[in-house]
Amino acid sequence: MTALPTHRIDAPPVVAMDAVQLAKAATGITGFDDICGGGLPLGRTTLLAGGPGSGKTIFAMQCLVHGARHCQEPGIFVAFEESPKRLVANFAGFGWRLDELLPRQLAFVDAQPPTDLVQSGSFDLGGMLAGLQAQASSMGARRIVFDALDIMLALLPDESARRREVYRLHDWLNSCGFTALITAKADGDASHGGGQQRFGFMQFMVDCAVVVNHSMTLGVSQRNLRVQKYRGSAFDENEAPFVIGIGGFDVAVTRKLGSDETVVSTERVGSGVDRLDTMLGGGYYRGATVLVTGFPGTAKTTLSGAFAEAACGRGERTLFVSFDSDGGEVVRNLTSVGIRLAPYVDSGLLRMVSARTIIGSAETLLVRIKALARAHGARCLVIDPVSTLSTAGNELTAHGVAERLIDWSKAEGVTLVCTSLLDELTNGGGSGSPLHVSTLADTWIHLSYLVQAGERNRGLSIIKSRGTAHSNQVRELMLGNDGVTLADIYTAGGEVLMGTLRWEKERAVRLAAETAEVATRLKRVRLDAEEAELEVRLKSLETELVAKRTEKLLLVRATESNEGEASEGNTQLRELRGADVTPRALRD
């Protein structure tokens, strides 16, 4: 390649860094613009380095497409590694509709070195840059990508020549005011400072440097990126995981405190179990996150199915993601306990998704679940169990995914019910969550079982429920043909009774109450009889008393009468005898 004279084109002045905020060029990559505070530095050069399969070319192309389609900034893609035809075919799966942008808003330049190239003498990039100037001037390009520039630099004879051409390119980009993105291969783990030994000086030259990495962690594919430097701007320095989905890059970022406050709802939604709603003071809050933990067989899926049925009964579109079973199997199994989801699946209100078909890292699972929920327009989301995320990579990564899942559901106002499987062997029979998301959940329901008298019975307790005056009592979870119910448990001598023992205790208490009631009635009858008998006896005694009093009165009167008559008779007798009494004739 021979050198050609360089001609400057009329271009807008290079954007100067404001004292407060550097001007940014949005990339349109979800999450990345948040990390950088708005995007790549406008009118400056960014280096994107990474190993094979890390997504450098996709990242660069997505930036160009966004600029051309949404920012009125046409772009040029200079390809050193693949032909434009192959690139367009590779990008067809992302839905970017490149044919609508070609050739006025987006242009490809094939800069691949010929395979039969025989180097003779020295060469430089001057001729290629002159041709790019003409192309940019004709279409008004404001963004440019040099993909796999290291391939061209490797053709130069020595380090000084490579450094000279890189600085030539850098000066040309600065003079034109392009928002430029250069991709280069990195050997080793670029995310931890490795790689780029041959062309590492480019990191110091550019205004922004981003490294992307693709590695395997515990047999699971993991992708992450990190902004190494960003002159004149604050940025998030930590690694951020990302996935490459149907729309391109999707970088996972955690919502920052104080940003985009979530709308808090006071509306209550039913759990599908009436007595559980009573224990919660009216049900779950709309948009809340509910965590259901328990060992295998404690009816976590059943409780989730009851919620899904209740949500669909309210006319709310619901997505049920099952990691353990096929969706059809879940619908069939829940029918045995009176939970009938098939009509809602048929009507389209409920969508059952078997997550076994979703392979990849925890980040991949999160992105696809969010895409499914948005496509379905879900207001309620069930993930059974969310603890499966911990097996899709290391536990730290899975915890970050669970945290972002909760943040996303709150931002979207989606009521999220997650189950979490506990391992008796590793968890020690406790009630903690393997992903440590129990602290993030608004309501935490724990299911347990008690083996007693040859039976295994299930218990339900509410460990926490923010914003509600919830019950602190343990209830027995009972599954029957007519649905899910909660029953009180009994304690006898400090021992909790469930199942048959509880039934026997209830029966004994019921029989004792009936016996006590019969005894009370018999005693009352006996007391009534004794009372009646006493009343009769009292009546008889009163009558006898009246007779005695009458008899006494008659006796007194008779005695007084007799005494009077006797006195008068004695007087008359004395008179007749003439003794001690003056004769009547004399008295007269």
3D structure, described in words:
- The chain is an alpha/beta fold and 588 residues long.
- The protein has three domains: 24-114 and 121-251, P-loop containing nucleotide triphosphate hydrolases (Rossmann fold, 3-Layer(aba) Sandwich); 268-488, P-loop containing nucleotide triphosphate hydrolases (Rossmann fold, 3-Layer(aba) Sandwich); 501-574.
- Helices cover 38% and strands 23% of the residues.
- The protein has 16 helices and 24 strands.
- A nine-stranded mixed beta sheet has the order 5-4-6-7-3-8-9-10-11, sandwiched between helices. A nine-stranded mixed beta sheet has the order 16-15-17-18-14-19-20-21-22, with helices on both faces.
- It is rod-shaped and about 195 Å long.
- The N and C termini lie far apart (194 Å).
How is this structure best summarized?
Helix 12 runs parallel beside helix 13.
Topology readout:
Elements (H helix, E strand, L loop, with lengths): L23 E2 L6 H5 L3 E2 L3 E6 L5 H15 L4 E5 L4 H8 L14 E5 L15 H14 L3 E5 L1 H5 L5 H18 L2 E7 L15 H5 L2 E10 L2 E11 L9 E6 L2 E4 L16 E2 L4 H6 L4 E2 L3 E6 L5 H14 L4 E5 L4 H9 L6 H6 L2 E5 L7 H15 L3 E5 L10 H18 L2 E7 L2 H4 L15 E10 L2 E11 L9 E6 L2 E6 L1 E3 L2 E3 L1 H79 L6 H4 L1
Parallel strand pairs: 3-7, 3-8, 4-5, 4-6, 6-7, 14-18, 14-19, 15-16, 15-17, 17-18
Antiparallel strand pairs: 1-2, 8-9, 9-10, 10-11, 12-13, 19-20, 20-21, 21-22, 23-24
Helix pairs in contact: 12-13
